[in-house]
Structure formats: structure tokens, C-alpha cells
Amino acid sequence: MNKATGYGKNSFADQLFLIGELILLLASSLAASFVFHHFFSPIPFDVRLINAVVFAAVVMLCALSVGLYDQQLRESHGGILKRVIITLLFSAFLLEVVVFNLFSSIAINGWYMLLASTIAVALISSFRAFFHYHDVTRISRRRVLILGAGERASIIERRMRRTVDRRNFEIVGFVRVAGDKEDALQNETVLDLDVQEELFQFVMENAIDQMVIACDERRNMLPVEHLFKCKTRGIDVVEILDFIEQETGQIAVNLIYPSWVIYSNGFDNKKWLKTNLDYRLNFLLGLFVLALTWPIMVVTALLIYFEDGRRTGASIFYKQVRVGIDGKPFHIIKFRSMRSDAEAGGAQWATKDDDRVTRVGRVIRKYRIDELPQLFNVFRGEMGFVGPRPERPEFVCELEKDIPYYAQRHNVKPGLTGWAQLKYPYGSTSEDALEKLKFDLYYIKHRSLLLDLVILIRTVEIVLFGKGR
User: Which of 81, 122, 219, 294 has a 20 to 30 A CA-CA distance from 210?
Assistant: First the structure.
């Protein structure tokens, strides 16, 4: 994916995959409409063509929302089939209830949608199984040479140890440079190469596409002349920070140095709608979500009240101080998912199987229903829909001492959902906070309307599959 929609660069294999899936979806719709045209009632060709385009567009949008276009999706064939079926059910609902009601002139018999969806499930599932079985991504993998075999280079080994992490590139090897820490790499190929004499020749003979500068010491250690010659021959030379950011969708906080932040592209909030328009967009989206979810909110409030609110007199809502933009505190509003005495002993991290959580609380936390009252924080301008999740002041004070650049996440308005929520599972320790910060900084650097839209669409996956809590 590119930076607007995710991370990494679109490879030829990725483009081939998307084009192939688009063609199969168009074919599914056209085949279904052909059946109805010839065996039931005539359908004008322009209507059949429009339906095919609309069907393919909506299905691909729904596929994005359930994570089917996540480059690092780890699912069995059965898991992929389940997601494909959910995608087609979701798209059928949107088409029948929304699109065809708004544009009734292009609507075809409801049985058309059932037939088109059935054909699409068979074709898309088979296509994905074929694509995965034959590992088509091999045809466009970049050949990468890592210049360095010490502590910094070992981060690549730790961060990208799975096959799915390296789907877009192949590491030819790591080259040791003077000053590198010994024995930092565990399971990687370390090349015996004199970088000051043999680097350029090795790069050309082994068809290297990209070199990553990852040595521990740079001053007077880099083979500048060889790097320059490689650059002029079209070899991509990148910093380890940029390589990790490109391939993982996160910024390696432990490698950041101030000049990289200052001189790198991104972190420019002026290009974003950080004005009244930003608030208006969030306000309108908040009204739309409230109109859709108010029945769920009413039912949730009643369940909380009857579970323990009536007996204890505790509120159905939970208010808590959080840190917002520019470090300003505000009160976040949530449905209460824990017992009323949950923090009698003071503030503490919530854990995955926290015994303070009520029965209703476990359900509403899993599917993010407890977050819905935060729409009122959006209306008040304290939060947006997308941004780093706001943290408690007690924890922020600790985290700012322990984690470099943690305070930078307060340079943007906090959100109901964010890049870190999509990319990192539930976490309740300072180590988890560090990992989430890496994704938050990536979001802050690359934030745009398109990235926000992708995050909002992908949040559907979190809700449907109960991820991230």
C-alpha cells in the first residue's frame, strides 16, 4: 500500500491482485445479470454495466473494511472464506438498502444480488487461495541489501521476522561495517564483504534494488563513493528509519534523532484540515453515527442500569480525565463497563481479562460500544473521529519520563479510533504504550483526509471481529 492508504509501496503483484479481483467482481455481476436478462426479464445493457461497476466498487470497499486488503493479514483459508462471506453480506445490505433505494432506476431483481454474491464468493475465495498458494508476490519482490550487521540492523530482524512481513522484499544479506556490534543478528545471512572495496561490484552482480543504511557507527565508516555510484545507477538507498516506516507502518521511536524529525517529510499539520472545517466534518459525521447507533446506546444504558446501576445507584456513564491536544485535560465520557468501586485503590491499567469488568461491560468493550458516548466529546470539539487514543494524566506523566517523544502524540486532537488501534492488539503496559506510540507517530507524520477515511473504514473490522480490546 502507499502512504495514503497504509504503508509500503504498491508492488506489481499487489496491483495485479487488485486488478484481478476487480475483474472477477465485474464478471460475477455481469454473469448474474446475464442470467436474469435471458431467463427472466430483459435488462438494458447499460443498467447491467452500471450494476457491475457499482457492485465491484461496494464489495471492494467492504473488503477493505473487514481487513481483506491488509498486507499483513494472517488468516487460514477458512478465515479468509469467512471474511469474504461477511464482505458479500455487508455489500449486499448496502446495495439493497441504500444504493438501489436511492437509485431505483438501476435496481435489478433481488435474486440478482444473491446470485452475484454467490458467484463472487466462489471466484474471490478461489482466486485468493491460488494467489497465496503460488506466492505470486515473488514476481515483484525487491532485492534488499542491509548495510550493517549490528544492533541497529538487528531491529529489522526482530521487526520483520515473519514471511508476511517480507512479502514485498527479499533480504540478500547483511553486510558488517566497522563499528557494528558483534553477534547482534541471530538468524540472518551476514556477508563477508569489504564494503570499502567490493560493495558496488557486489550490488551490480547481485541485482540489488535497494540498500538500507543500518550500521551502528557512520562517521568515516560508510563507503560514500560506492553509495554514490549505486545511487547514480538507480539503486534506492534509504535510512533504516525510513525502511522500517515504509514496510511496517510505524516509526521506530528508539532510532529517532531530532534532525530526522526536522528534515523528514511529514509532520506538517498545515496541510491537514486543522481548522473549523475539521471540526465541522467531525460534527457532521458524529450526527450521522449518532442517528445510526442511538437504539444501541439506549439498550446499552438499560442493560447497565439493570445489571448493577439500580442496585448500587452508580451512573451508567463513566467520566474520566484524559489528556487532549496540546496537553490540555478534558473529561472523556464512556458507558460504564466496570464495577463502581473499580478504582477504589487509585488509577491502574486496565488488563485484557480484568476482573473489575462487569458482564455487560465485557460485551460492550469487545465491540467498542462503550466508546459511543464519546460522540459528545466530538461535538464539544475535544476529540475527533481519528487520532491517537487519549491517555490518563497519571499514566502520561510516567510515560513521558520513560518513552522518548511520547509527548508528541499530543500535537494532534485525540480520536475515537486510530492507526495504532488497527495495527496493535490490546495492551496495558508501558511496553505496549511504546509500541502504540510508533504507530501514533506514523499517523501524525502522514495524517491526511484519505488516511483518516481508510482508518474509519478499517475500524469496521475491529467492531465486527472484536479486535483491539
Answer: 219
